[in-house]
Each structure stands twice: as structure tokens, then as C-alpha cells.
Amino acid sequence: MHALKKNRPLRRVVLTSAATVSGMVLLLSLKPHTAPAIASSAPSTGSVASPAPSGSAAGGSATGTRTVTGEAAQTRYGPVQVRVTVKNGRITDATAVTYPQENPRDQQINGYAIPRLRSESLTAQSADVDTVSGATYTSEGYRQSLQSALDQAGL
Q: In the chain, which residues have pLDDT < 70?
């Protein structure tokens, strides 16, 4: 006769209880996804980081070189913040100073998304860049922060 038949109901209760406890321990040992902290030495207030005007720069003009950090855009997976360098009214550099990189998947996605977004923003000379497939939230946050920086730079 089978070990779990009606003549041994206590064994069935013990095995069921052990399976339930094991399942609960496994379930509770899973770690939830947490939002990454902003680990950047860049100012997060969106202020001008290091103005270095050229010889003919006048206050409020688009000449000279300015580095401006945009406001951090909160996304589903963490903040995205972009710093731009503007020289004579043109974007010469756009660097993501803060972006989700808490886990290997974030690192993989943003490892190919951030360089593409940078390249497109330099080509477009604006925040009007295409969304990178597979990195929708990062792309949206990048655009928002880039637009914030461009607004502060007067572009």
C-alpha cells in the first residue's frame, strides 16, 4: 500500500506542513528591487556647474563654453540626470551623470542605451531624440533631464 494512504494521515500532515514552511522560507528570502540612490558628485539642483566664457562672451549670450547639469528625472527604475557642455550655442557634450545601474540588467540596458542617447542628442542638437528600444524609461528620463539642462543653458 502507498505511504500516503488513509492508514497514515499524520505522515501526510507532516509532509504538507514541511512543504508549506519550505515554500514560505523561499518566498521570504527573495529580495525586492530597490531604487538606486543618487551616487553622483554632480550638483543635483540643476545649477550651472562650471561656466568658462570665452573672450567675447557677454552675460546672457549664447557664446562661450558652459557646462550645465539638468534636473534629475525620476523614472520607474531610478533617477536619470544629464550634464551638457554648450560652446557657442552648440551642444558639444552630453553626459549621463546619474542613471539606473543597481543590478546587472540595468547595467546591460543602459550600457547600450546611454551612448546611443548621447550620440543622438549631439546629432540633433536638442532633446528631440528617439527612444532606445528596450530602454524606454531611461530614454524618457534622459530627454527630460537633457531638456532641463538645455533650458538652463538658454538653448
A: 1-7, 31-63
